[in-house]
Amino acid sequence: MPSQSDSASEFDRLKREALMNSGKNSPGDSSFLIPNTVFAFVGGIIAAYYIFKFVKASLNCIKVFCFGRSVSGAVDFNKLGEWAVVTGATDGIGKAYAEELAEEGLKICLISRSQDKLEQTAKEIEENSGVETKIIVMDFSDTTDESYNRIEEVLKDLDIAVLVNNVGMSFSYPENYIQYPIKSHIDMLNINCHSLLRMMHMVMPGMTARKRGAVINISSASGVSPTALLSSYGASKAFVLSLSKAVSTEILYGSNPNIIVQCVTPFFVKTKLAGIRKSSFFVPEPNYFAQCALNTVGVWDHTYGCLSHELQAAAIQLVPSFVSRIIVYRQLMAAKVRYLKKNKKAN
Fold first, then answer.
1. Is the distance from CB of 154 to CB of 136 less than 8 angstroms?
2. Residue 20 class from Cβ within 10 Å (0-12 exposed, 13-18 middle, 19+ buried)?
3. Helices (H), 255-320
4. Can you give the pTM of this predicted structure?
5. CA distance linking residue 19 with residue 218, whole number of Å
6. Is 253 a catalytic residue?
7. Catalytic residue, candidates 97, 148, 233, 304
8. Tens digits of per-residue pLDDT, 280-339?
9. I need a labelling partner for 270 at 20 to 30 A (CA). Which of 52, 92, 116, 153 fits?
């Protein structure tokens, strides 16, 4: 049986061996330098990649929004054809696109549901820009073939350079999904999604045959991520963004790369639909927004439209998605409370 001194000696020996082994793998040992160097190298590459992306995006924004179309490399619309077709063309962003494309020298075909507004807008464009106009009365909540056949009959012989799918519907105020009647949600899909499907499918075969043309689909920043209290509106705009990107990719890698499909996802613009009466740096006037957005056609297949909106998007992307969704929810809830309080006073 080993003595107490033998046990102590054995313990000391094991302790010395453990200390020697641990010393071999100390942080100062060269065996640790190789993985540390690899991690530092990989981290440096990742950091350089994101810095490069940030610098490139910043330079592109400056080039597009500060120096205009001659520097940005945007498309010359007059080389695409003679006519621009704009839906939802009598108010807000749609009207602004029609006016700006008329200034480019394109003839304008306006499509909307109010004949009086269509005639007034057409008259203004003819007087201000001196271009030919056509009008088509159409309520896009009507999804019948007969209604769309009327549009096709007018458009079939036109050399269409640009199609702007702008017609859209939103709710009067933010509200929980189930609080609005189902007809409102169905009308939302028909106006925001069905109209775009039909108009693209109607116009793009002619562009394909001529091997030139541009389709501009107006979506919303609400379609970039889920938007509570504007659920079906945001979902319909997400459809517009997804379809636009998919078709743009098909064209880019297909046989007609000269055809452009772009999606625009603006934040707030001073329009009737947005219910905003005062413009600011972050809430631009419709015509200024349209001017900026047109400078991106042929440069980007997805744009927020103007510099201030690109900055807002960049800021939101720095925040985790669940945080941004909570922030937006609280903002829209506050807007709902203000609307209901104002409406109650009015009654």
1. yes
2. exposed
3. 286-294, 307-317
4. 0.83
5. 69
6. no
7. 233
8. 899 999 999 999 999 999 989 999 999 999 988 888 888 888 898 999 999 999 999 998
9. 116
